[in-house]
Write a structure and sequence with these properties.
Layout (H helix, E strand, L loop, with lengths): L1 H21 L4 E3 L4 E9 L3 E14 L5 E12 L4 E13 L9 E7 L13 E8 L4 E9 L5 E7 L4
Antiparallel strand pairs: 1-3, 2-3, 3-4, 4-5, 6-7, 7-8, 8-9
């Protein structure tokens, strides 16, 4: 009898786990990852290459997102690699829509330094849409050059 009870309890727990997973948030990775690299020459014939890449992780239920960055710096001379450093992490950003829903998302980013980055390291654009209605919002964030980013979002109109 205790064997039957254990199986019954296991089945009940399995259904409870599946029900909780069905209501969980869904995270999606942006489709437009970018990478930018730079090279530097220093005295003593040392070469340094630094590459950075950005991606965005989007919560399709809440419209919150994370801006993620990874970087790698490599220093070498003519014969060997002297130093390798890697760093990265994700920063949580605010919701794009005020209410929970079923959203799609994409992002793109300028590759600094370039002609698009007037005040600093550039900026990025975020697009999010409601999968259940004709609703889309575009957001642009740029560096002000004064220590804080400026971000604005607009709801698109359909003609």
């Amino acid at each position: 009898m205790s064997h039957v009870m254990k199986i019954g309890l296991g089945v009940a727990l399995s259904f409870m786990m599946l029900a909780s997973v069905a209501h969980a948030d869904e995270f999606k990775l942006s489709n437009n990852q970018r990478i930018s690299c730079s090279r530097g020459l220093s005295a003593g014939k040392l070469n340094t290459a630094t590459c950075k890449s950005y991606a965005y992780l989007f919560n399709a239920k809440t419209s919150e997102y994370f801006r993620c960055q990874v970087s790698l710096a490599l220093t070498r001379d003519n014969k060997e690699v002297i130093n390798v450093q890697a760093d990265g992490g994700c920063t949580k950003k605010p919701r794009i829509f005020e209410t929970d829903g079923n959203y799609s998302f994409d992002a793109t980013e300028t590759e600094p330094p370039n002609t698009n980055s007037f005040f600093g390291p550039g900026g990025y654009a975020i697009w999010a849409s409601d999968n259940n209605s004709q609703k889309i919002r575009g957001c642009i964030t740029i560096s002000s050059g004064l220590g804080s980013d400026i971000s604005k979002c607009l709801d698109m109109t359909f003609q």
